[in-house]
Amino acid sequence: MGRRDVHSPLIEPAIAEDEAAVVALWHACGLTRPWNDPHADFALALGGAASTIFVARGEGMIEGSVMVGFDGHRGWVYYLAVSTDQRRTGLGRALMAAAEDWLRARGAPKLQLMVREDNAAALDFYQALGLERQKVAVLGRFLKEGA
Ligand SMILES: CC(C)(COP(=O)(O)OP(=O)(O)OC[C@H]1O[C@@H](n2cnc3c(N)ncnc32)[C@H](O)[C@@H]1OP(=O)(O)O)[C@@H](O)C(=O)NCCC(=O)NCCS
pTM of this prediction? Predict the structure, then answer.
Protein backbone atom coordinates (compact mmCIF):
# COMPACT_ATOMS: atom_id res chain seq x y z
CA MET A 1 0.00 0.00 0.00
CA GLY A 2 1.49 3.35 -0.98
CA ARG A 3 0.93 6.74 0.55
CA ARG A 4 0.73 10.21 -0.86
CA ASP A 5 0.49 13.70 0.48
CA VAL A 6 0.18 17.08 -1.18
CA HIS A 7 3.92 17.63 -1.49
CA SER A 8 5.34 14.21 -2.26
CA PRO A 9 4.90 11.52 -4.88
CA LEU A 10 3.57 8.07 -4.05
CA ILE A 11 6.08 6.05 -2.01
CA GLU A 12 5.66 2.30 -2.34
CA PRO A 13 7.73 -0.89 -2.69
CA ALA A 14 9.44 -1.29 -6.06
CA ILE A 15 8.46 -4.01 -8.51
CA ALA A 16 10.79 -5.91 -10.84
CA GLU A 17 9.78 -3.72 -13.79
CA ASP A 18 11.23 -0.67 -11.99
CA GLU A 19 14.79 -2.01 -12.25
CA ALA A 20 15.98 0.01 -15.27
CA ALA A 21 14.57 3.31 -13.98
CA VAL A 22 15.88 2.76 -10.45
CA VAL A 23 19.37 1.83 -11.65
CA ALA A 24 19.34 4.89 -13.94
CA LEU A 25 18.45 7.05 -10.91
CA TRP A 26 21.30 5.51 -8.89
CA HIS A 27 23.71 6.28 -11.74
CA ALA A 28 22.42 9.85 -12.05
CA CYS A 29 22.81 10.37 -8.29
CA GLY A 30 26.40 9.11 -8.28
CA LEU A 31 25.65 6.08 -6.12
CA THR A 32 27.11 3.37 -8.35
CA ARG A 33 30.67 2.10 -8.26
CA PRO A 34 32.50 -0.16 -10.73
CA TRP A 35 32.86 -2.94 -8.17
CA ASN A 36 29.09 -3.16 -7.52
CA ASP A 37 26.60 -4.44 -10.09
CA PRO A 38 23.53 -2.25 -9.44
CA HIS A 39 21.22 -4.59 -11.38
CA ALA A 40 22.27 -7.52 -9.18
CA ASP A 41 21.92 -5.30 -6.09
CA PHE A 42 18.36 -4.39 -7.14
CA ALA A 43 17.35 -8.01 -7.81
CA LEU A 44 18.89 -9.33 -4.57
CA ALA A 45 17.24 -6.69 -2.40
CA LEU A 46 13.85 -7.09 -4.05
CA GLY A 47 13.98 -10.89 -3.99
CA GLY A 48 15.09 -11.25 -0.38
CA ALA A 49 12.63 -11.83 2.46
CA ALA A 50 14.51 -9.42 4.73
CA SER A 51 14.96 -6.48 2.37
CA THR A 52 13.10 -4.22 -0.01
CA ILE A 53 13.39 -1.09 -2.11
CA PHE A 54 10.96 1.81 -1.85
CA VAL A 55 10.41 4.07 -4.82
CA ALA A 56 8.81 7.49 -5.08
CA ARG A 57 6.60 7.53 -8.18
CA GLY A 58 6.11 10.90 -9.79
CA GLU A 59 4.35 11.70 -13.05
CA GLY A 60 5.50 8.80 -15.19
CA MET A 61 8.92 8.62 -13.59
CA ILE A 62 10.72 7.45 -10.50
CA GLU A 63 11.87 10.45 -8.48
CA GLY A 64 13.50 8.69 -5.55
CA SER A 65 14.46 5.38 -4.01
CA VAL A 66 15.81 3.79 -0.87
CA MET A 67 16.94 0.21 -0.18
CA VAL A 68 16.36 -1.19 3.31
CA GLY A 69 17.16 -4.49 4.97
CA PHE A 70 17.07 -6.09 8.42
CA ASP A 71 19.87 -8.54 9.25
CA GLY A 72 18.25 -9.71 12.48
CA HIS A 73 20.21 -7.25 14.62
CA ARG A 74 20.34 -3.91 12.81
CA GLY A 75 18.40 -2.25 10.07
CA TRP A 76 20.50 -1.01 7.15
CA VAL A 77 19.73 1.63 4.55
CA TYR A 78 21.42 1.87 1.13
CA TYR A 79 20.99 3.67 -2.18
CA LEU A 80 19.00 6.65 -0.90
CA ALA A 81 18.51 8.77 -4.00
CA VAL A 82 16.37 11.74 -4.99
CA SER A 83 16.46 13.07 -8.55
CA THR A 84 18.22 16.42 -8.75
CA ASP A 85 15.08 18.39 -9.73
CA GLN A 86 13.13 17.03 -6.74
CA ARG A 87 15.70 17.74 -4.03
CA ARG A 88 14.98 19.91 -1.00
CA THR A 89 11.26 19.21 -1.17
CA GLY A 90 11.20 16.69 1.68
CA LEU A 91 11.35 13.59 -0.50
CA GLY A 92 14.59 12.26 1.01
CA ARG A 93 13.07 12.66 4.46
CA ALA A 94 9.89 10.86 3.34
CA LEU A 95 11.87 7.95 1.85
CA MET A 96 13.84 7.60 5.10
CA ALA A 97 10.54 7.60 7.03
CA ALA A 98 9.28 4.76 4.80
CA ALA A 99 12.49 2.79 5.48
CA GLU A 100 12.15 3.45 9.23
CA ASP A 101 8.50 2.34 9.27
CA TRP A 102 9.45 -0.87 7.42
CA LEU A 103 12.18 -1.59 10.00
CA ARG A 104 9.96 -0.77 12.99
CA ALA A 105 7.31 -3.16 11.69
CA ARG A 106 9.96 -5.93 11.80
CA GLY A 107 11.16 -5.11 15.30
CA ALA A 108 14.54 -3.75 14.25
CA PRO A 109 15.93 -1.79 17.22
CA LYS A 110 18.25 0.49 15.25
CA LEU A 111 18.76 1.93 11.78
CA GLN A 112 22.29 2.32 10.44
CA LEU A 113 23.85 3.35 7.16
CA MET A 114 27.20 4.08 5.60
CA VAL A 115 28.08 7.38 3.93
CA ARG A 116 31.24 8.09 2.01
CA GLU A 117 33.40 10.48 4.02
CA ASP A 118 33.47 13.05 1.19
CA ASN A 119 29.66 13.17 0.77
CA ALA A 120 29.15 16.35 2.81
CA ALA A 121 25.62 16.97 1.48
CA ALA A 122 24.44 13.53 2.56
CA LEU A 123 26.11 13.90 5.96
CA ASP A 124 24.30 17.23 6.46
CA PHE A 125 21.03 15.65 5.33
CA TYR A 126 21.32 12.74 7.79
CA GLN A 127 22.33 15.10 10.58
CA ALA A 128 19.22 17.20 9.83
CA LEU A 129 17.18 14.00 10.27
CA GLY A 130 18.73 13.43 13.69
CA LEU A 131 21.05 10.55 12.83
CA GLU A 132 24.27 10.51 14.85
CA ARG A 133 27.76 9.77 13.61
CA GLN A 134 28.99 6.48 15.13
CA LYS A 135 32.49 5.86 16.39
CA VAL A 136 33.10 2.71 14.38
CA ALA A 137 35.33 1.74 11.49
CA VAL A 138 33.70 -0.25 8.70
CA LEU A 139 35.66 -3.30 7.58
CA GLY A 140 34.83 -5.48 4.60
CA ARG A 141 35.81 -8.21 2.19
CA PHE A 142 34.23 -9.23 -1.11
CA LEU A 143 32.93 -12.81 -1.17
CA LYS A 144 32.54 -13.22 -4.92
CA GLU A 145 35.15 -15.38 -6.62
CA GLY A 146 37.76 -13.33 -8.44
CA ALA A 147 36.86 -10.11 -6.60
C1 LIG B 1 20.85 13.23 0.20
C2 LIG B 1 19.55 13.34 -0.56
C3 LIG B 1 18.86 11.96 -0.62
C4 LIG B 1 18.62 14.33 0.18
O5 LIG B 1 17.36 14.31 -0.45
P6 LIG B 1 16.36 15.58 -0.40
O7 LIG B 1 15.03 15.09 -0.91
O8 LIG B 1 16.96 16.74 -1.09
O9 LIG B 1 16.28 15.89 1.16
P10 LIG B 1 15.08 16.63 1.93
O11 LIG B 1 14.45 17.65 1.05
O12 LIG B 1 14.16 15.61 2.53
O13 LIG B 1 15.91 17.38 3.08
C14 LIG B 1 15.63 17.30 4.45
C15 LIG B 1 16.58 18.21 5.18
O16 LIG B 1 17.91 17.71 5.04
C17 LIG B 1 18.84 18.80 4.93
N18 LIG B 1 19.53 18.74 3.63
C19 LIG B 1 19.11 18.11 2.51
N20 LIG B 1 20.00 18.23 1.52
C21 LIG B 1 21.00 18.99 2.04
C22 LIG B 1 22.20 19.48 1.48
N23 LIG B 1 22.56 19.23 0.21
N24 LIG B 1 22.99 20.24 2.27
C25 LIG B 1 22.64 20.52 3.55
N26 LIG B 1 21.49 20.08 4.12
C27 LIG B 1 20.69 19.32 3.37
C28 LIG B 1 18.04 20.06 5.10
O29 LIG B 1 17.96 20.38 6.48
C30 LIG B 1 16.67 19.61 4.62
O31 LIG B 1 15.65 20.40 5.07
P32 LIG B 1 15.31 21.80 4.27
O33 LIG B 1 15.14 21.44 2.83
O34 LIG B 1 14.06 22.22 4.95
O35 LIG B 1 16.48 22.68 4.51
C36 LIG B 1 19.76 13.89 -2.01
O37 LIG B 1 20.53 15.06 -1.94
C38 LIG B 1 20.48 12.91 -2.93
O39 LIG B 1 19.86 12.06 -3.59
N40 LIG B 1 21.83 13.02 -3.01
C41 LIG B 1 22.63 12.17 -3.92
C42 LIG B 1 22.66 10.73 -3.48
C43 LIG B 1 23.27 10.56 -2.09
O44 LIG B 1 24.30 11.11 -1.76
N45 LIG B 1 22.58 9.70 -1.29
C46 LIG B 1 23.02 9.36 0.05
C47 LIG B 1 23.99 8.23 -0.03
S48 LIG B 1 24.56 7.73 1.59
Answer: 0.94
